[in-house]
Structure formats: C-alpha cells, structure tokens
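Would you kindly consider the sequence and fold I have copied below?
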Amino acid sequence: MQAALESDARPSEDAPPDMRKIAFASVIGTTVEWYDLFLFATASALVFNKIFFPSFNPLVGTLLAFGTFASAYLARIVGAALFGHFGDRLGRKSMLLFSLVIMGVATALIGCLPDYNRIGIWAPILLLTLRIVQGLALGGEWGGAVLMAVEHAPAHRRGLYGSWVQIGVPAGTLLANLVFLAFSSTLSNEALLSWGWRIPFLLSVLLVGVGAYVRLATTETPSFRKVKAEGRQVRLPLLELVSKNWKTVILGGVATMSTGSSFNLIVSFGLTYGTQTLGFTRNEMLWIVLLSCAACIFLLPFFGWLSDRVGRRPVIIGGIVAEALVAFPMFWLMDTKLFMGALAGYMLMMTAFAANYGPIATFLAELFGTKVRYSGLSVAYMLSGLLGSATTPVVTTWLLAATGRGSSVSWFMIGTALLSVAALVLLAETVRRDLAQTP
C-alpha cells in the first residue's frame, strides 16, 4: 500500500507536462543565473575596483584584465562543452540543478570574501576564481533550461515556451540593478564598501533555493527519455558535434552574435556614454535601463509566440534588420540629452532586440539532433557571446575615441547585424521539425 501511494505521489513521466510549471522553472533558474552575473558586473563598477583591485598594484590590474575576459567568455564556452557532454549523456534535469547550485554557491562565497587589505593578493585571485566558476555554471545552465522548455513543449508552442527562458536576461539585469541600487542609495559609502555590498550576493542563496525547489518537481524531457530508453546516447557528444555538426555550430553562433552586441550596447556602452559624455546622472540612466528591461520581459514571449505562427527566421531576421535600422536613431535620440528622448531610443533598440532574441533559443535547439542537442545549443550560444559581446566594449570604445561621436558605434551594430543575417540565410527554417524524430 505504501509503495502504491508513493508511486501515485510521483509525477508520471508519461502524463502531459504542466507547461506553466516547466516554463516557470526555466525562467526562474535563468533569472537567478543572470542576476548573479550582472550583480558581479554592477559591483565591479561600484565596489570591487576599490576593495579588491587597488590601482596602485600593477599585478592586480593585470589579473583583473585577464580574469574579466577569461571568466566572462572563455569559461562559458568551457562550461557549455562540459555540461553539454553530461546533459547529452545523463539528462537535462540533473545538469540544470547542478549548474544552478554551482552558480549560487560561487555567488554566496563572493559575498563572504575578505578584501585586499586583509589577505592581499589572494583576495582578487579568489574573486576571479569564483567569477570563472560563475562563467562555467552559466555555460551549462542556459542550454539545459532551453531544452527543458522546448523539448517538453507542444510542437506548435515551442517558440513561445523557449522565449520564456530568454526572460532571464532582462529579468536578471533588472533584479540585480534594483537590489544593488536599493543598498547603494540607502547606505553610506563607507557602509556599502564595508559590508553592504555583500548582502545582494548572499541573497542569491534564497533565490537558488526557490529555483532548485521548483526544478526538482519537473520531469526529464520526452526527447531525452526516448534516446535513453533506446540506448542511443553518444559516448562523446562534443566529438560527435565537432565532427558532424561543426558548420551548424559556427553558423548558429554567428547568427546569434547580434543579440550580444545589441544588448551590450544598451546596458553597458549606452550607460557609460549617457553618464560620461551626455551628462545624464547615473540614476537617470539606470532608470532608462530598468524601464527598457521591464518592457523586454513582455516583448520576448510575444515574439516567441509570433515565431510559432510565421516561422523562426522571419521574426529573427526582422529583429536583426530592425536593430540595424534603429542603431543611428537610438543615438540621435540620446544626443538630445532629454530623458524621454533617451528612453525612446532605448525602447526602439530593446524592441528590435526582443524580436531577435525571443525566438533564437528555440531556433538553435531545433538545429541539432537529440543526441547532441545540449552540447550544440550551448556551444553555439556561448560562441555568439565570444563573437558579439566580448568584442563590443573594445570596438565601441575605439569608435567613440576615434570619432568623438556616439552614433559612430552604430556602424558596429550594423556590421554584426549583416553577419548574423548572412548566417541565418544559410540555415534552414526549423519551425516544422519533429524534435522527437530528429536523430
């Protein structure tokens, strides 16, 4: 009797999935991951440069430069390959939980680190090590979250549910900025540098707990269960991916690179340009970013839904072309030095970004067969970050210094858009593919 009750209490893997629960589990995990990542970026600008990387020490400055690059981009690709391997071998659900816990532990430990005055050079070394761990976790988290949503979803709603995972980026950005803004505005500068900055990092433990609890209640995806039941897992998914799907990985990465350049243009370069060149206060620019991210949360599912009806490529290409078309108007509106003008420019670019970014997760997932889907999806997406996001700060800073005009950065946005469109043209439409039958 007890065994029967326990069996009834467990969710049946053959029952129709509760897509609302799965969508929520996917979005809360990615929100936590991006919250942790963007929290680090915000703290780096306001706190870490003062307590972990004193400018009088050139060795620490070198470590900062190397660590920021390695952890932000290279570690994500390593994480994508590592978690992709085990995700294709052992399952999506276990890797999702593992990556979420790793990210939460790394973020909480950052909140406990002694500063440079207490342990010297070990402080930045430990900080950068934990940053790399964050990058590894993010590299594995995103792909697994996408597959939990896409592989569970009905065929005619894969774009919609895949777009829910994408909400984690603007939601994480929004949450990280709000939390840090709350503490930085209510505490004195001394209190913030002493202990206040640690609380947002420690709060990550609560978010991870909620995310892990929700994800434990989900089931493994039907596509992977079928592959596992038939014993068709690939022994070395990454080797299989590189040998048979390398063109798709590269094209998928290039097709996605414009999402990274456009988002970094909004949340990174635009913020710096608005405050340092145009004279907006930091709070004004933060509110512009926050309002744009809030709008994006609603726009992403709309464009995911639209891609289910008209196809992935038309929506994505439309978003990329729109990014190129509004690149100059965005800066022209910012150059008015009016709050509403800058906000309008941001909203234009964020809408174009949402059309591009909303369906791209589902599109990438549909490009690969079940046996290498976790690896292929993750590596292609993290490659796009290396191609688009990593180059954005260097190129945009050089363009601004060379021309003295913020609008010159628009040429970079147009260039990445053209490359992404070219890659998309070479890739086939995927909206009608049967994931369960894809080898």
Notes: Residues 236-427 form a domain with the Growth Hormone; Chain: A; fold (CATH 1.20.1250.20).
